[in-house]
Amino acid sequence: MPFEDSAHFEREMGCTPDELRRWLPGASGDRPLAWRTDGADVTIGGGRLRLDWQVLPPRRIASIVLPRLRVRFDFGGVGDDERRGFMRFFDLYTHRGGG
User: Is the pTM of this model over 0.85?
Assistant: First the structure.
């Protein structure tokens, strides 16, 4: 799953806020988390990742209704290699299978 090669980006995720909250401890590699109402801060080495999310209207495909979140990723004080490694793991952890 590709990710944006930037310290600040947004993406749409097909999940609810509760699902993202359940996934985040594992998806962050058990790094320290500080929870906020619509987001979380993840400590990564000497820096941090600020995650903010906003519920979007669900995607409707015929009779299927899929939840959507707009998630903002803001890395501060995290090197490129460390950020890429974090996102690679995050993407693998939060990937939903299909088929």
Answer: yes
CB atoms within 10 A of CB 47: 15
Q: Tell me which H or E stretch contains 90.
A: helix 80-94
Give the CA distances from residue 88 to residues 4, 36, 54, 57, in Å, rounded to whole numbers and listed in that order. Answer: 10, 24, 22, 27
pLDDT in tens, 56-97: 999 999 999 999 999 999 999 999 999 999 999 999 999 876
Assign 3-class secondary structure to 8-77: EEEEEECCCHHHHHHHHHHHCCCCCEEEECCEEEEEECCEEEEEEEEEEEEEEECCEEEEEEEEEEEEEC
In whole angstroms, give the CA distance from residue 97 to residue 78.
Answer: 29
